[in-house]
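Here is an idea for our session: we take a single protein and study its fold together. To get us started, please write out a protein record for me. Once you have written the record down, we can walk along the chain together.
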Amino acid sequence: MLRVSWRNLLAAKLRLLLTVTAATLGVAFVCGTFVLSDTMVKAFDELYGGLTSGTDVVVHAASAYDADVTTTGGQPRPLDDQVVDTVAAVPGVRAAEGAVSGYALILDPAGEPIQPGGAPTFATTIHATREMSGAARIRDGRPPEGPEEMVIDARTVDSAGFRLGDDVEVIFESGRRSFTLVGVVGFGENDSILGATLAGFDLATSQRVLDRVGLVDEVDVLAEPGVSVDELRDRVDAAVPAGVEVVTGEQVASDGTAAVEDALGIFTTVLLVFAGVAVLVGSFVIWNTFNVLVAQRRRQVALLRAVGATRRQVLAGVLIEASAIGALAGALGIAGGVGLAVGIRQLLTLIGVEIPTTTPAVETRTVLAGLGVGLGVTVVAALLPAWSAARVAPMEALRVAAPVRQASARARHLAGALVLAAGAAGMAACAIVADEPRWSLLATGTAFLGLVFVGPLLARAVGRLASHGRTGGGWRLAGGYLVRSSRRAAATALALTIGLAVVAAVSVTAASLKDSVTEAVSGGNRSDLILAPAGAGLGISPAIADLVRTRPEVADVVEVRRSVAQVDKQEEFVDGVDSAALDRVLDLGLAEGNARDLAPGRILVGSDEADDQGIAVGDVITLTFPETGARTFEVAGTFDKGSLINTAYVLAMADFEANVTARLDTSILLTAAPGVTPEKIQTAIEEALVEYPNVNVNTPAEQTAQARESIDQLLGIVTALLLLAVVIAVLGIVNTLALSVVERTRELGLLRAVGGTQGQVRSLIRHESVLMSLLGAVCGLIFGTAAGVALSRAFVDEGITSVTIPAQQLLIYLGVALGVGVLAAIGPARRASRVDVLQALSAD
């Protein structure tokens, strides 16, 4: 049976190539996801390990809980710098130096902000004790000394064209300052910290420009020779006051890597969802391929059974073929995953998302996942066809080979219709009720399962519809083939259905999100101008707000800042605002209370969250901040329109500043003074902020346009990732048509013998391909649109408040799918038209 399986594999090299390719693409997507995420974790691990390699012990403020540093900006609660002297006096300490870090945006010689790919822009302290800098080294020049000097990372120096001695402009939270460049910093063999810009100063200067005079963010400690790290940590821990945490440098690196790994979890999961779609499409292709092969080999299998082969041997023979294809696809997929990881990284870079990387990391998990997916999917997909082959009776060897009609039982169609109806009803119910993501997902899966069962019935319906064409016409003949081979046509079409369904669902969700953003800005915004950070910046300096307050064209200035806090053990966004003019720039849709009641010690809470927690105006709610711990606030009001600020918890700015170290504004909302036109105030503010190129001055309409453009960019990335599934589906159509041509050699020969031309034969195959593509596309678009509506309604609390169906975009997808059907038929149609009439008529 091994020899038989091997000969069967090599007998149809085109079929082998297409099947292996379909499986390989899915495996490559899975492996590429793991390679990309593992490479990013490895890069951060190398970074943290290098930066902390010169520090034995680190002293910093203890956090109330493990907060997500990616949302807080990584700003710890500062310590009084007297703790540096306390630590330095501990026996066994060779050196102890304080350090602070924060926001610093470097401007190039033309005055433009340097922020490659939206990477972070850091300011930090350069230690006087050089051993404590770890992998960071002064490559050129010298360390900074005094209030007018700085050093910059090598990548920024090269990209901006800076030279030692140049004056460099830097924007901090407190405003804009100028320094002299005296040194260039490198990090081992790297020119930057994974793409981030770095401005380095001595301790006194960094404290002054980062508003930390008399404070430090941490104390870095170097042990004397002969003193172990653990021993020194325990000594320092005993000497520092309560609320201060002492950890080893190795632990800091490990915690940093773990935090990055957790943050990458969502990113990896999203990519694995796309990979799962590709694998699912590939499994349909493989299943359909083996179904066709078993149908074509019934006489061969019967002969094997007649000469003594057992059912178990026949089953094993088909599974051996599947295993060989799966193993080959797994091996190729692992290799292709490395290239695909690079491709995904480049795709994200096109929209300004800088992905840190190092040499590709191919972990054992990736290899096992590649081989497991390749073998598992292929063998499972071939299991039912193999079982069907094992049930072939030996007597079938006496029959003349003929295409096997794949009629589906009425019970299957009835069950499928009921399941489809149940799933559709569930999707409709979830869309009506809203905010039910899990039930929406379950209903969508149920509807798809029903669609799989009724697929042959739909294929027959399309075939019968096409059969109404003129007698002897290509459409009529193609329709007849779909009716005869409905299960095969349905399986081929379903591969395309999956890809287009996901594309359609994402398109509907994106269109709904865009319109929701527009509605939020137009419905909840009362400001005339919105100041926001350019690109992917973390925020803008509060000095901007102080500056625009002095302008006579401006009436109200409201700063908005963002951090995180735990509410009922869940981490939530919390916004701080200037409450005096809040109701004049924002309409929060107050259900209870008044925006003017927001004062220190009080909070505004979203209505849904208030209902979930059973609180009302006058009740007390507890927020736990990473920096300061648990704080209680009285509920001043509840609101319904939180989509514009995208948070359910709003504090007065005084309370925000008392509990959050970061001072960057996420946005600043302005209203014009009486008699000042929107055009005049925008011109005036743009002129006032000419020295702050990192700030966008937008009208609400411009802000909306930028948000919609960002969603379009994200949609483009998602669609590009999903194209791989569509490519696999196209391979499935090509594979089915190619196998169909082989199976119908005698039929095609008869068609040519009675006068059919080569062009008519090619047209017949093209029509069959278009009909299968049409079936898959229509089912995919209808199903995907319904799923998109349910998905949009499932995320009402996340800001999707309206549902929009992009009909024009969906029609374009339909046209592309039909074009795909024509292209997929080119090879099989050419082969069909070249069938030798005499050989075809003599074929068994």
Summary: The longest strand covers residues 554-567.
